Amino acid sequence: MIYEVFARKSRGEPLKHIGNLNAPDVELAKVYAFNTYDEERWFDMYVAPREALAEVFTEDRGEPVEAG
Amino acid sequence: MTDATELGADAEAAVRDLILVLADTKRLLGYRYAEWMLGAPELETGIACSSMAQDEWGHARLLYALMKGFDEDPEALEHAREPAEYRSMEVLDASAGTWPEAVALMALADVAVTTQFEALRSSSYDPIRQRVEKVVEEERFHAAHGAAWFQRLAEGTDASRSALRDAVSDLLPPVLAWFGPDSERAGVLEEAGVAIETGSALRSAFLERVSDRLARVGVEPEDPFFDGFDEARRRGPGGPDEETIRRIRGDRNRAFLMD
User: Fold this and answer.
1) What pTM was computed for the model?
2) Cβ pair B48:A27 closer than 8 A
3) pLDDT tens column, B140-189
4) What pLDDT is recorded for position B228?
5) Closest to B195 in 3D by CA, of B208, B177, B211, B182
6) A35: chain B residues, CB-CB within 8 Å
7) Do B143 and B150 form a contact (C-beta atoms < 8 A)?
8) Lower Cβ count inside 10 Å, N or C end of chain B?
9) Nearest-Cα residue of chain A relative to residue B41
């Protein structure tokens, strides 16, 4: 299952999406996130299964992106 | 207290032994984690193993540095000892051959070491007490990683469960023995206020922590035997294999230090 990883540098700052990872369950997802995204000093960090993110809207119409 | 001599001769010797046991065990454990940076079942767990290896080596460094308080040279301890002089936990002598064996190490041996550290949280010997919290805090994620993988293998296939059960039954007796007997030496550590618990009390604390996972693979703990057990090394005779020690001492390329 793919988990999306969110973190912020300081209290009050908005959560930022910082990446994703593969994990079979939320416990391992937490450990993997902690170990994988450790280059920066975070204030807090969260994981959420990708499928838990509900799309509100997207500008993406699935059209091919022009090269250039 | 900050000066080891204030502990009195018996306690001073016991604390010195304990620190060296923990330092060597952390060093070997780090090496065993490092062996799974490549070849673990998924990329993410390889990254976790690499990170845990760094933690364990960091803890070992910190502990070797404490040996200065006992007039020992950390440099000599880290680079000039033979395998039989190491005091690392017996189950770390050889590499884990399979992933279930590695998981048993993580879920039992690493937890046993942390259980020992927690008994030093309110230690009367300041240099230990001041370092315990950092170690215990970093170990939270090691414990979570070990527990999650243990559960995954235990609930996986018949093959993964039985491989894990075999690994656990091999590993458990020496890990239980590692806490040592309720000896005079152990009593000295408690009386001096260095450790809040030793021997069988620590063993019980550890068993309480891992009882669920032992039950999950159907392994019953048994009272340890202490035949041939060397209390100063917290293990039986022998030590890690030569090649492991050569690698952790960094023999092959020490000449390039050029200090």
Assistant:
1) 0.92
2) no
3) 999 999 999 999 999 999 999 999 999 999 999 999 999 999 999 999 99
4) 94
5) B182
6) 44, 47-48, 50-52, 141
7) no
8) C
9) A23
